[in-house]
Amino acid sequence: xxxxxxxxxxxxxxxxxxxxxxxxxxxxxxxxxxxxxxxxxxxxxxxxxxxxxxxxxxxxxxxxxxxxxxxxxxxxxxxxxxxxxxxxxxxxxxxxxxxxxxxxxxxxxxxxxxxxxxxxxxxxxxxxxxxxxxxxxxxxxxxxxxxxxxxxxxxxxxxxxxxx
Length: 164
What we know:
Number of strands: 6
Strand content: 25-35%
Order of helices and strands: HHHHHEEEEEE
Largest sheet: 3 strands, parallel
Distance between the termini: 42 Å
């Protein structure tokens, strides 16, 4: 991969991944600006960027396709593209990581029972996160602690999205 294209592709992949894990507003804005620029100047890779977001399991393949698409254009000489990619990478490195005690995603279960969960970290801290779950029975989540540092305890944090 061309060394001038690699930071752009890395920024896109990291930005897409950050969106799925609750990126900060600064990261979201930097990612949106990079995507908008790509859509205006390099429309041929826009569909691949969208697939990078919607199909994270194909991230490596999408990165290669995006790199090839950019390499076949004038992207290697595009200073503004590199600046926008660098702005996104800077925003990503400045954002504290989210720490999650237990994360369940895309599951089907008869029941969920979670107890005695502890999560600690410097950034956002989530005790339990459940996304895209189909549960036919009961959900029992108890004794969850989420703290920003080892000596500070906060109220339990739960995120349940798209529970079916």
